[in-house]
Specification:
Blueprint lengths: L23 H15 L3 H28 L1 H8 L9 H16 L3 H28 L16 H24 L2 H35 L13 H16 L6 H38 L11 H20 L3 H40 L1
Family: Belongs to the tellurite-resistance/dicarboxylate transporter (TDT) family.
Subcellular location: Cell membrane
Membrane topology: Multi-pass membrane protein
C-alpha cells in the first residue's frame, strides 16, 4: 500500500497537508523574542527572532504553494468551522514580527509588515466568518467550534499592539503627527473590536461545551488560546494607555486601563483551569502526550502571558504583575524549547525514515 501525501513529506508537512493554523509556531517564537527583549536578553531575542523569520518564510512558501497547487483543499479549509479560524494565525504572526522589529527601532520594516498584517486582517476578518459559518456545509456549525476561534480575537489585538508601538515611534519623531493620530485611532478601535470578539467566541465555545459532549480528544492544546487572547488584549491595552493623549484616548483611557487589569486577573485565573484540563485529558483519560503542531497554540499563550504581565506591571505600576511576568518567561521558554526540540526531532526522524524506505 502506498503512503499518503502527508507521510511522503518530512514530518507530514507539505503543500497538500499544511494546515491553516501553521503560523502558530511563528507567533510563539516571535512573542518569545519580544519577551527576551523586554528582559534585556538581546542575544536570545535576536536568535529567537531569526528562527521566527525562517519559520515565517517557510510556511509562507508552503501556503502560497498550496493556494496554487491545492486550491480546492484550501477553499475546503475556509469552509470548515473547525479549521478556518486558523488562517488568522498569519495575521497574528505577521504582526508579532512587526512588533519585534518596532521594538528594536526598525520602524520601516515594521510598517511594511503592519501593512501586510492589517490588510490580511481586514480581508480575513470578513472572509473567514462568512466561509466558516454562513456558507459552511457542516451543520450544526456549533458542533465544530473549538479553541482556534479565539485566534480571531488574537489577530485583531495584534493589530492594536503594532499600531500602538508605531504610534509611539511616530511620537518620537519617526513620522508625521497625523500618522500617529491615525495609528492611535486604529489601536483603540482594534482593541475594542478584539474584546468584543473575545466575548463572542467565548459564548460560542461555552455553547459548544454545554450542548455537545466535550471529550478528552476535543479538549486539545488550542484551548489555551482562551488565555492567550486575554493576554494579548492586556498587551494592547497596556500599550494604549501610555500613548500621547488624543480625543479618542481621553474618552476611553479609564475603560482600557481598568479592563486591562481585570483581564489580567481573569487570564491568571484561567491558567490553573487549563492545567487541570490537561491533567484530565492526559492523566485521567490517558490521551498520549506526543508532538503535534497544535502544541504551538499552547506555547504562544504562555509567552504572551509573560509579556502581558511585564507590560501591565510597567504601565499601571503593578510590581507583582511585572515580577510574575519576568519569572513566568522562563516557564514559557522551557515549554518553547521542549516543543521546538520535539518538532525538530520529528522532522529529522521523518526525513530519515523516508530515506531508509526509498533506499
Amino acid at each position: 500500500m502506498g503512503r499518503s501525501a502527508a507521510e511522503s513529506r518530512p514530518w507530514g508537512l507539505g503543500p497538500a497537508t499544511v494546515p491553516p493554523g501553521c503560523f502558530a509556531s511563528v507567533m510563539a517564537t516571535g512573542i518569545m523574542a519580544v519577551g527576551a527583549h523586554l528582559k534585556g536578553l538581546d542575544i536570545l531575542s535576536i536568535a529567537l527572532f531569526l528562527v521566527a523569520c525562517v519559520l515565517y518564510v517557510f510556511f509562507l512558501v508552503l501556503m502560497a504553494w498550496r493556494a496554487v497547487a491545492h486550491r480546492e483543499a484550501m477553499i475546503a479549509d475556509l469552509h470548515d468551522p473547525g479549521k478556518a479560524f486558523g488562517f488568522f494565525t498569519f495575521v497574528a504572526a505577521t504582526n508579532v514580527l512587526a512588533t519585534a522589529l518596532e521594538g528594536i527601532g526598525r520602524v520601516l520594516p515594521g510598517i511594511v509588515l503592519f501593512t501586510v498584517g492589517l490588510s490580511a486582517w481586514v480581508v480575513l476578518g470578513y472572509l473567514v466568518p462568512f466561509g466558516a459559518i454562513l456558507t459552511s456545509r457542516s451543520r450544526p456549525v456549533l458542533r465544530r467550534v473549538n479553541g482556534t476561534w479565539f485566534v480571531w480575537c488574537v489577530a485583531t489585538q495584534s493589530v492594536a499592539v503594532v499600531a500602538t508601538g508605531l504610534a509611539q515611534q511616530v511620537a518620537h519623531g519617526h513620522g508625521p503627527t497625523a500618522l500617529g493620530a491615525a495609528l492611535s485611532l486604529i489601536a483603540i478601535g482594534a482593541w475594542a473590536v478584539g474584546v468584543g470578539l473575545y466575548a463572542l467566541c467565548a459564548v460560542f465555545v461555552s455553547l459548544r461545551a454545554l450542548l455537545y459532549r466535550l471529550g478528552p480528544d476535543d479538549l486539545d492544546a488550542p484551548y489555551w488560546v482562551t488565555m492567550g487572547a486575554l493576554a494579548i488584549s492586556i498587551v494592547a491595552g497596556s500599550r494604549i494607555v501610555v500613548l500621547d493623549e488624543t480625543p479618542m484616548l481621553s474618552v476611553t483611557l479609564l475603560l482600557i486601563s481598568g479592563s486591562s487589569a481585570a483581564l489580567w486577573a481573569f487570564a491568571t485565573w484561567l491558567i490553573p483551569a487549563l492545567l487541570l484540563a490537561g491533567w484530565w485529558r492526559h492523566v485521567h483519560h490517558r490521551v498520549p502526550m506526543r508532538y503535534s503542531a497544535e502544541l504551538w497554540s499552547m506555547v504562544f499563550p504562555l509567552g504572551m502571558y509573560s509579556v502581558a504581565s511585564m507590560y501591565l506591571g510597567e504601565a499601571e505600576s503593578i510590581p507583582i504583575a511585572a515580577w510574575i511576568g519576568g519569572h513566568w518567561y522562563w516557564v514559557a521558554l522551557g515549554v518553547w524549547a521542549t516543543v521546538f526540540c520535539a518538532m525538530t526531532a520529528i522532522a529529522l526522524l521523518s526525513r530519515s525514515g523516508r530515506r531508509t524506505a526509498s533506499a
